Amino acid sequence: MSLRCDHSSDGAGLHGHALTRALDDAETRCGAEGQRMTAPRRRVLQLLLEADGPVKAYDLISGFGADGEAAKPPTVYRALEFLEKQGLAHRIESLNAYVACRLGADGHAAAFLICDCCGATREVEPAGADAFTGAAAASGYEVRSLTIEAHGLCAACRG
Amino acid sequence: MSLRCDHSSDGAGLHGHALTRALDDAETRCGAEGQRMTAPRRRVLQLLLEADGPVKAYDLISGFGADGEAAKPPTVYRALEFLEKQGLAHRIESLNAYVACRLGADGHAAAFLICDCCGATREVEPAGADAFTGAAAASGYEVRSLTIEAHGLCAACRG
DNA sequence: CTCGCAACTGTTATGAAATAACATCACAAC
DNA sequence: GTTGTGATGTTATTTCATAACAGTTGCGAG
Question: pTM to 2 decimals?
């Protein structure tokens, strides 16, 4: 759970062009569903997209203002709630942290491979999720949402 | 996530004989591994075993003393950490709550079916986990531990 | 036995994460 | 324009968890 190495992190952060495009895409998607991508929501999504890995809520709060001024907690938590609902962001339960969605993002299930060494967190297709959901259904349980989070070592840190 | 119905809960709590036996079993298992089942650990495990469902840490804290006196947080958190390490208890990340292990408990992976209606939480074998771990391994990631938590509706609440 | 270490517990204090409650604002529908 | 809904701003509080250090206990080595 704690970082124990000096390996480089994700390198997944978006910047410049790619960032703007991702934000605009998200805005378009929201509009298509009658949802509003307002300023604080866009700002929080931007912070998540720029980040190399999972971001703590209070880091979003303190990084919120472009001038370094912090936001109030509800501002950020409400934005996160919205982004999660739109499938634009995910909460990593086992880290109390948040990431921008890096996959298709259309209501899909998510799964994460978290490196306990360097902190890199990769979003992957949830292989085996159908088997799990099916097994649950066979026992009468209806899966509405599924949290899958692996802790372990990424390829670089295993090296 | 919030309880919305008045369906009965798990009914999984242990009492009397069964409780004592479960506690003694746990103590035996600890002894066999050179671990000590001390008083606070046993007490926390007891509270978890008695409970019908997931228990919040601060409920354990306030229920700790038989006389109704509360424990200090570190007492309970340390006990929980120990119990988790021994596979005697699990943390439900998506609820910030804890449950006694209801399965074999020998270092196994765990998965949970959480009913968002009545709160019942069932520990199940993680069907599909091997597929997931295998897929991760194929991409160079080594899974050390796997958190699988489903939210949805149990059979009773779907009715 | 007794010394010394390692593990465990007790205690105080603080830090981190999230939400409640209520006031105000923006904007589209009518 | 007015009205209603959804979004934001703001203050305060609650909930969850750990840091840091002091004291105790059990146990094996000598």
Answer: 0.93
